[in-house]
Amino acid sequence: MTKHDRWTDHPATADLKARFRPVFDRIAEGSVARERGRILPHEEIALLKQSGFTALRVPADLGGAGASLVQLFDLLIDLAEADTNLAQGLRSHLALVEDRLVAPRAEGEVWLRRFAAGQIAGNGWTEIGAVKIGDTLTKVTPDGAGFRVDGEKYYSTGTIFADWIDTYATRSDTGAPVIAIVKTDQSGVTIRDDWAGFGQKLTGTGTTLFDGARLDAEGLVPFENRFRYQTAFYQLVLNAVLTGAALAAVRDVGRQVAARKRAFSHGSGGLVRHDPQILQVLGKARAFAYAARAATLEAARAAERAYETSQGSDKAADDAANIEAELQSAAAQVAAVDLALRAVSDVFNALGASSSDQALALDRHWRNARTAASHNPVIYKERILGDHLVNGTEPVYVWQIGAVAM
């Protein structure tokens, strides 16, 4: 008997693609205007909720689409091609959906039904400043029939758009690490739009303050119960973002080349669209984007296997599946970072100086890819992959950042 005796066959990928293509096209239409005006995509998030995209992994009998993990990341890449901000802005929500999907039905169903109804989550995990590695200053304290939450979080991606905040904290009474799923619409929660990065400016990222925020008992989850392949999952979202940035850069520059009338005298002598060197530039960048997508989806298959083993009772199989999911996600990260950054940079060789015109906003593809590539430092993932290959060392599943003793 599995934890979820309710799965039906996944919907056809072609049907899902057809269902969401008009949604993604509509989102893509306004991406440049949003970027130039720094307009947060509230309307676009609402569209994704209304279309059912935010409930892709929720089982069909609970009101969702019942999509597989491979289908989820395939569609997430399509969304990232339309606007990378939206794909990353849903990162924490998609992870919380996955966590509640892995949980026993009695614990997860109430949340999955909320997600099917269009509610979404942001996050409150990272703390900055003097907090030491391994410490968490945000506390959950018993208070009457429920709890209160106090603390400050940064990099709260997606929280500006969210109904709930997936928050990492410790209990003040026991010191145990917990997940607190906190409702945003209350006086004890303050959300600031103060993300200062040069890319991914519209992900709804900033600071979240908890000052006596109310937490119901159903929203308190021991961290030890968190779904095991979460680190691989979080990285797969960033891999999708990187892939989407590469695909979008190839798409946009390709359109500019197709319409270009001016040519260089030392070029082929004809229309730029027929210049073999220009076509080679775009063809190579397209191949880079294709390879990044293929790597991401292959790693998603490994995460799918980790989901499947989480629903059974074979611990050895589950351990092996989680190791493989983390390693494949890391390998896909290394590939996607290199491939995407090369693609979003090299495509500028297909145009002249006009490609730097701010009206085109082509620079957003490089800025967005570079920003996403800076998360979860790739150099450490490269070492982890090598260490496993040579020494059989297991990857690090959960890690933190913080101050160290001088």
Order of helices and strands: HHHHHHHEEEEEEEEHHHHH
Rounded radius of gyration (Å): 22 Å
Instruction: Report how far the terminal alpha carbons are from each other.
Output: 52 Å
What's the total count of β strands? 8
The total tally of domains equals 3
Bin the strand percentage: 5-15%
> By CATH's scheme, which homologous superfamily of the largest domain applies?
Butyryl-CoA Dehydrogenase, subunit A, domain 3
- Under CATH, the topology of the largest domain can be stated as Butyryl-CoA Dehydrogenase, subunit A, domain 3
By secondary-structure content and strand pairing, the structural class works out as: alpha+beta
Number of helices: 12
CATH class of the largest domain: Mainly Alpha
Global morphology: globular
Average predicted local confidence, pLDDT? 94
- Helical fraction equals 40-55%
Please supply descriptive tags for the structure shown above.
406 residues, alpha+beta, Butyryl-Coa Dehydrogenase, subunit A, domain 1, Butyryl-CoA Dehydrogenase, subunit A, domain 2, Butyryl-CoA Dehydrogenase, subunit A, domain 3, 3 domains, 8-stranded mixed sheet, 12 helices, globular
Architecture overview:
This protein is an alpha+beta fold and 406 residues long. The protein has three domains: 13-120, Acyl-CoA dehydrogenase/oxidase, N-terminal domain (Butyryl-Coa Dehydrogenase, subunit A, domain 1); 139-225, Butyryl-CoA Dehydrogenase, subunit A, domain 2; 230-391, Up-down Bundle (Butyryl-CoA Dehydrogenase, subunit A, domain 3), CATH 1.20.140. 49% of the residues lie in helices and 12% in strands. The protein has twelve helices and eight strands. Strands 1, 2, 3, 4, 5, 6, 7 and 8 form an eight-stranded mixed beta sheet that branches. A hairpin with a 2-residue loop joins strand 2 (139-143) and strand 3 (146-153). Helix 4 (69-82) runs antiparallel to helix 9, helix 6 packs antiparallel against helix 7 and helix 8 runs antiparallel to helix 9 (276-310). The longest helix is centred in the last third of the chain and has 35 residues, at 276-310. The chain is globular. It starts with 12 loop residues before the first helix and ends in a 15-residue tail after the last helix. The model has no long low-confidence stretch (mean pLDDT 94). This is Acyl-CoA dehydrogenase C-terminal domain-containing protein. It holds the Pfam family Acyl-CoA_dh_2. It comes from Gemmobacter fulvus.
